Amino acid sequence: AFEGLAERLQGTIQRIKGKGKVSEADVKEMMREVRFALIEADVNLKVVKEFVKKVSERAVGADVMKSLTPGQQVIKIVKDELTELMGGDQSPIQFANKPPTVIMMVGLQGAGKTTTTGKLANILRKKYNRNPLLVAADIYRPAAIQQLQTIGKQLSFPVFSLGTDVSPVEIVRQALEKAKEDHNDVVIIDTAGRLHIDEALMQELKDIRALKEPDEVFLVVDSMTGQDAVNVAQNFNETVGITGVILTKLDGDTRGGAALSIRSVAQKPIKFVGMGEKMDALEAFHPERMASRILGMGDMLSLIEKAQENVDEEKAKELEEKFRTQSFTFDDFIDQLNQVKKMGPLEDIIKMLPGAGKIKGLENAKVDEKQMGRMEAIIYAMTPQEKTTPSIINSSRKKRISKGSGTSIQDVNRLLKQFEDMKKMMKQMTNMQQGQKGKKKMK
Ligand code: GDP
Ligand code: MG
């Protein structure tokens, strides 16, 4: 998401960054561009106006003008305000003091409620060590019940269903009893959606709410519907009442308008974002990190978290040690390739690196997974000595390796260069990681 916005804002930022002095005219000019960028990203007009006003007021303030790095100062203000716009701090899940915690999923048809029910259950188990029961309360489409059952089976979660003949309220009532019996500490209710908001749907949701006040009512909305998503959020909040928003399909949303407007219009925080169809593609929403990403400052924290989730701890420690002692070899490189593969599509990972937005063409570049296969083949064609001491690979060895792996000499050269680059990058990353840790402690 946010590709267009990111590109525009980063362009503006580059221009203002190094300025020794920032005049009021500079700020005005920058704000014009920010305004345009936000409108183009499909951000709600009222939100754009307020945002630009706030940033302008702060940016022409005495503090900025007197500061030694006024350009940087303005960028910081934009980042702060973007963060604020998206809700400020990350908004955690509210758990009941006395289990079970009841989470209700509401939203229009096709928004992603059923899918997200599974993803959320996954997070609850993995990160919070909970044991959720999924409840099939969408009785209008038999396929909906089946869909939830399939997800439950796939992830090994119990699914409570009474078919399509019992009312949703009764289903939820019995599900709550069942959860008590089976010691499920979280109950996630997958409700029915409609194509449009209608009175009957709202009443049904209110009836379920009345049975037992849920700890969370998550509105699931499709970010690709842009300002419609924002209107739906406002409407649901006013009629049914919601506690938070889960924004799905952010992976396919290039503009980001809903993500930027919802908090301010509907007055409810985005708690999670859906980043794909797979069951592990749900992430906690961190406004500050998202703002950094939009401004091309990268998102090292998310990247490190992602790595920590997927990478074997022991292996990671071993690798870190190897980087430090410079004893990293091609065998480790293969290990590393495999770890990276587990983290998901390479282009997603690269996007989180600071400055990635500035690398020309990267936003469209599909990192070639085939090339990873080629790399592996080349490494397997090396002798053990070549793997540990790549500096001995002269041109006759290169020839042999390229022949043995069915690749070209250029491929071999490229890999050797990549190996060196990777060593360098990893060194930077370990440094940065230590920097981030230090910052966190200071807070
Ligand atoms: P519901 O009608 O609200 O229950 O919606 P579903 O859970 O059935 O989802 C509708 C479609 O959206 C399915 O094909 C999902 O795979 C897809 N979907 C849900 N969340 C995401 C997401 O974050 N990214 C992508 N790309 N697809 C999603
Ligand atoms: Mg559904």
Automatic annotation (TrEMBL):
<keyword id="KW-0687">Ribonucleoprotein</keyword>
<feature type="binding site">
    <location>
        <begin position="190"/>
        <end position="194"/>
    </location>
    <ligand>
        <name>GTP</name>
    </ligand>
</feature>
<protein>
    <recommendedName>
        <fullName>Signal recognition particle protein</fullName>
        <ecNumber>3.6.5.4</ecNumber>
    </recommendedName>
</protein>
<comment type="similarity">
    <text>Belongs to the GTP-binding SRP family. SRP54 subfamily.</text>
</comment>
<dbReference type="InterPro" id="IPR003593">
    <property type="entry name" value="AAA+_ATPase"/>
</dbReference>
<dbReference type="GO" id="GO:0005525">
    <property type="term" value="F:GTP binding"/>
</dbReference>
<dbReference type="GO" id="GO:0048500">
    <property type="term" value="C:signal recognition particle"/>
</dbReference>
<keyword id="KW-0547">Nucleotide-binding</keyword>
<dbReference type="InterPro" id="IPR013822">
    <property type="entry name" value="Signal_recog_particl_SRP54_hlx"/>
</dbReference>
<dbReference type="InterPro" id="IPR036891">
    <property type="entry name" value="Signal_recog_part_SRP54_M_sf"/>
</dbReference>
<dbReference type="Pfam" id="PF02978">
    <property type="entry name" value="SRP_SPB"/>
</dbReference>
<feature type="binding site">
    <location>
        <begin position="248"/>
        <end position="251"/>
    </location>
    <ligand>
        <name>GTP</name>
    </ligand>
</feature>
<comment type="subunit">
    <text>Part of the signal recognition particle protein translocation system, which is composed of SRP and FtsY.</text>
</comment>
<dbReference type="InterPro" id="IPR027417">
    <property type="entry name" value="P-loop_NTPase"/>
</dbReference>
<dbReference type="InterPro" id="IPR042101">
    <property type="entry name" value="SRP54_N_sf"/>
</dbReference>
<keyword id="KW-0342">GTP-binding</keyword>
<dbReference type="InterPro" id="IPR000897">
    <property type="entry name" value="SRP54_GTPase_dom"/>
</dbReference>
<dbReference type="Pfam" id="PF02881">
    <property type="entry name" value="SRP54_N"/>
</dbReference>
<keyword id="KW-0694">RNA-binding</keyword>
<keyword id="KW-0378">Hydrolase</keyword>
<feature type="binding site">
    <location>
        <begin position="107"/>
        <end position="114"/>
    </location>
    <ligand>
        <name>GTP</name>
    </ligand>
</feature>
<dbReference type="Pfam" id="PF00448">
    <property type="entry name" value="SRP54"/>
</dbReference>
<dbReference type="InterPro" id="IPR004780">
    <property type="entry name" value="SRP"/>
</dbReference>
<dbReference type="GO" id="GO:0008312">
    <property type="term" value="F:7S RNA binding"/>
</dbReference>
<dbReference type="InterPro" id="IPR004125">
    <property type="entry name" value="Signal_recog_particle_SRP54_M"/>
</dbReference>
<keyword id="KW-0963">Cytoplasm</keyword>
<feature type="domain" description="SRP54-type proteins GTP-binding">
    <location>
        <begin position="269"/>
        <end position="282"/>
    </location>
</feature>
<dbReference type="GO" id="GO:0003924">
    <property type="term" value="F:GTPase activity"/>
</dbReference>
<comment type="function">
    <text>Involved in targeting and insertion of nascent membrane proteins into the cytoplasmic membrane. Binds to the hydrophobic signal sequence of the ribosome-nascent chain (RNC) as it emerges from the ribosomes. The SRP-RNC complex is then targeted to the cytoplasmic membrane where it interacts with the SRP receptor FtsY. Interaction with FtsY leads to the transfer of the RNC complex to the Sec translocase for insertion into the membrane, the hydrolysis of GTP by both Ffh and FtsY, and the dissociation of the SRP-FtsY complex into the individual components.</text>
</comment>
<dbReference type="GO" id="GO:0006614">
    <property type="term" value="P:SRP-dependent cotranslational protein targeting to membrane"/>
</dbReference>
<dbReference type="InterPro" id="IPR022941">
    <property type="entry name" value="SRP54"/>
</dbReference>
<keyword id="KW-0733">Signal recognition particle</keyword>
